[in-house]
Amino acid sequence: MENKNTMELKLPGISVNEGFARSVVGAFATQLNPTLEEIADIKTAVSEAVTNAIVHAYPKSPGEIHISAALEGRAITVVITDFGIGISDILAARQPFYSTSKDDSRSGMGFTVMETFMDGVNVISTPGKGTSVELIKKIGQQG
């Protein structure tokens, strides 16, 4: 039986922490000896999930974001959790170009990007309580 290695990170949901979060998770994932492309995929998906939490979960003032990651076998599972306003319609939120942000610079492609770069994306949300986004990437699975 293989050992499971884990990490946890808690940080304020402010934009300067998005890059830090992606770097920490990317560095943690290097234990699986991924390709540069696999690391870039993981970092991109983490960036999207953290940015979603910063922009959508806490629209009035920053809140806390929790990130946990686990390495098991040849896979990394990353969970990004916020305790913000939640998502009332997860199915709609996962559609390309959907956004609740009033900011026109938001493309509404966050979940689509996560799904493109990861092998699995699961979203659990409760309005008024927050959202957890689980990202799964299998290392060494390129066709």
Provide a short characterization of the protein structure.
By secondary structure, the protein is an alpha+beta fold. The chain has helices at 16-29, 36-57, 90-93, 110-117; strands at residues 5-12, 64-72, 75-82, 120-126, 130-138.
How are the SSEs placed, and which strands pair?
Layout: E1 5-12, H1 16-29, H2 36-57, E2 64-72, E3 75-82, H3 90-93, H4 110-117, E4 120-126, E5 130-138
Helix pairs in contact: 1-2, 2-4
Characterization of this structure:
With 143 residues, this protein is of the alpha+beta class. It has a single domain, classed as Heat Shock Protein 90 (2-Layer Sandwich), CATH 3.30.565. Helix content is 34%, strand content 29%. It has four helices and five strands; from the N terminus they run E-H-H-E-E-H-H-E-E. Strands 1-2-3-5-4 form a five-stranded antiparallel beta sheet, covered by helices on one side. Strand 4 and strand 5 form a beta hairpin. The protein is globular and about 40 Å long. The model has no long low-confidence stretch (mean pLDDT 88).
